[in-house]
Amino acid sequence: MGLYDYEWFKSGFLSMSGIDLNSYKEGQMKRRIDNFLKKHQVDDYNTFLSLLRQDTEIHDSFITYLTINVSEFYRNPLQWQTLEKDIIPLLLKRFPKPLRIWSAACSTGDEPYSLAMVLSDFLPLSQVQILATDMDAEVLAKAKAGCYTGQSIKGLPQRYRDKFLEKDEHGIYHVSNKLKSCISFKQHNLLKDGYPQRVHLIVCRNVMIYFTEEAKERIYRRFSDSLCKQGILFVGSTEQIIGAKKYNFQGIQSFFYEKQ
Questions:
Q1: Along the 260 residues of the chain, how does pLDDT read in single tens digits?
Q2: Spatial CB neighbours of 259, under 8 Å, sequence gap ≥ 6
Q3: Do the bridges between strand 227-235 and strand 256-259 make them parallel or antiparallel, or are there none, so unpaired?
Q4: CA distance 40 to 44
Q5: Hey, which residues does 103 pair with through a beta bridge?
Q6: Parallel, antiparallel, or unpaired: how do β-strands 165-167 and 173-175 relate?
Q7: Model confidence pTM above 0.90
Q8: Alpha helices in the chain (DSSP H)
Q9: Which of 41, 72, 90, 117 is deepest in the core (most CB within 10 A)?
Q10: How many angstroms separate the CA atoms of 76 and 155, rounded?
């Protein structure tokens, strides 16, 4: 399977799905796709593209595989503590209620639910609006269901577990309806769909590392346009924004950028 065939596959897949694989780091993405083909005993990209068109189950499985869903509640606790101690009080001083938050590329929902839990310490959830988006319909369905294993919540402070989660007889934790009430889940592709406007806080963590530099630039510019002036972008632990000023961002804490 040569590079020419792969270029042809990317073009066909874009036409079929709207997902532009050119925006992802090529070596990393091609290896992932080739591994998927081997697992499903497919010999070439042409056959695989036909299979994706014909088999909904394979298609959905492939989309989920591509979107690299590694998530857990309260991931990287020190960053969440900075959010609680410094960032949320700042947002509450600056902006009227309801507080508008976008959890971009939210995967299985661990992040937006964690956000809602933290915010509940500061204001009623009726004054919080969280938009949680991902391009993978399958993980969004899991997020809406709000059912998690003990592994997913291992880093979550006990006070949030007691307040918002209920454990069933199988050891599965269920998110309360009260917590769900402030979150809207929506399918969304960061590379091609419209962005919400007048947002106070955008959380997009551990996603940008998979994109090319060109794709990152486009997304950061659109994040900046999406935020209110003095709104905050919260990024992942390996995602320092190089040249943040060209997107009208100023670093105010590690992993937090303010729109100027």
A1: 555 588 888 888 888 887 888 888 788 888 888 988 988 899 889 899 999 999 988 888 888 787 665 678 998 889 999 999 999 999 999 999 999 999 999 999 999 999 999 999 999 999 999 999 999 888 899 999 999 999 899 999 999 999 999 999 989 999 999 999 999 999 999 999 999 999 999 999 988 888 899 999 999 999 999 999 999 999 988 888 989 999 999 999 989 999 99
A2: 224, 227, 228, 229, 230, 231, 232, 233, 248, 249
A3: antiparallel
A4: 11
A5: 132, 203
A6: antiparallel
A7: no
A8: 3-17, 26-39, 45-54, 56-66, 77-82, 88-94, 110-119, 137-145, 158-164, 177-180, 213-226
A9: 117
A10: 8
Q: Which amino acid is at 55?
A: D
Which of the listed CATH numbers 3.30.9.10, 3.40.50.150, 3.50.50.60, 3.30.70.360 matches domain 77-259?
3.40.50.150
Sign of the alpha-carbon torsion through 183, 187, 189, 194: negative
Q: What residue ranges of the chain are covered by domains with CATH 3.40.50.150? A: 77-259
* Helices 56-66 + 137-145 axis angle, to 10: 80
